[in-house]
Amino acid sequence: VTIREIRFQRIHKKLKKTFVTSLQTVNDREAIMVTIISDNGLEGFGECVAFSTPWYTEETVESCAFVMERVLKPLLQGRILSSPHEVATVFAPVKGNHMAKAAIEIAVWDLFAKYEGVPLWQYIGGIHKHIPAGVVVAAGADGLLHDIEQAVSKGYSRIKIKITAESDIDLLKEAISRYPDIMFFADANGGFNKDSFGQLTLFDDVGFSLMEQPFGKQEWDLHAQAKKQMKTPICLDESITSIHDVERMIEMQAADIIVLKMGRLGGWHETLKVVDLCRRNSIGMWVGGMIEFGISKAHNLALASLPDIVLPGDFSDSRHFWNEDVITPEIEVIDGKIELQQQAGIGYSVDLNKARL
Ligand code: OSB
Ligand code: MG
Predict the structure, then answer these.
(1) What is the per-residue pLDDT across 77-98, written as a single tens digit (0 to 9) for each?
(2) What residues pack around ion ligand 2 (CB closer than 5 A)?
(3) 354 catalytic per annotation
């Protein structure tokens, strides 16, 4: 496959509802969409998941725009590739900037699946055709009960709740005990530290199936300590930026489960390596969300189709964050699940004019 053209398009949309985390309040979402066109006229799609400001990771929409346009595009344009795995090698001289790399790299994977005429989920070896949906409640205490009730009524059977060291434990217990059939995850986004370690242990009796990223991304010792002292499985998100981080996590027994995010890992190539390592070491995995549009979600759904990914990820429907998505058909949750598409590549058609403020 010859990479003939690489196009970028910025989009910007208001969120239907404010998204509150321990780190940042998000009201709108900017993203950069990538279209890669091959010599035979096929189009592959990618989406850059960096945020406008560096609150979740170091990258931003602006840093990615620069790196994608000025650094990565010249490395890839005009190349003849025999496998999408080669993109990681082409980009290897560029340090870091995983979200910028992933946005382009995943588009090449879509392109190759289309070239082979198979759905991306089949191209990477996926088997699950119905992906369990999962939603995030990021409302703060005021909206907690209402948002959980709404999620349950929409058929979600896995709900992730954003927590902080100040979260109301009794309120959480009360909310969770109302829904014995729903799986609840907690995500702290690194909101705890050495001094609030004791407060973290209080969450052990709330009823969460896992505790995501209680401490900062480099706090391997604190995570290992939490894993030892708590019965709730510890899950890492921000800490996992490469296969080396997973190796370290295993070595230090710092967590039981990881969140897979292709943006944070730099694309499909690194993510598939991480999946393999986790499988061999019995580390649990699920696919995380980034408040993203349909292109990124479609890639994530393909990832969640892999046999070793059994925990439900951050998969809400297209209308959860916005009134209109950039893909057709839009992603729908039916009976708590999302059905994968049978068309080649990501399986959805893309209209970038649809993502306007
Ligand atoms: O920490 O998992 C996170 C959203 C943006 C940035 C980081 C995170 C999140 C979420 C998932 O919690 C939201 C979603 O469903 O897209
Ligand atoms: Mg997280």
Answers:
(1) 999 999 999 999 999 999 999 9
(2) 187, 212, 237
(3) no
pLDDT band per the 50, 70, 90 thresholds, residue 23: confident
How far are the Cα atoms of 165, 170, 191, 193, 228 from residue 199, in angstroms, in the given order? 6, 13, 11, 10, 16
17-21, 206-210, 273-277, 349-353: the lowest-pLDDT one: 17-21
Query: CA–CA separation, 26 vs 17, rounded Å?
Result: 9
Residues in the chain: 357
SS3 83: coil
pLDDT digits (tens, 9 = 90+) for 145-167: 999 999 999 999 999 999 999 99
Which residues line the pocket of ligand 1, CB cutoff 6 A? 56, 136, 187, 189, 237, 288-291, 314, 316
Place of tokens 């409302």: 139
Phi first, then psi: what are they for 28, rounded to 5°?
-145, 165
Q: Quick one: average pLDDT of 3-23?
A: 91
Residue 84 CA to residue 107 CA, distance in Å, equals: 9
Which structural domains are found in the chain, ordered by start? 3-117 (3.30.390.10), 122-350 (3.20.20.120)
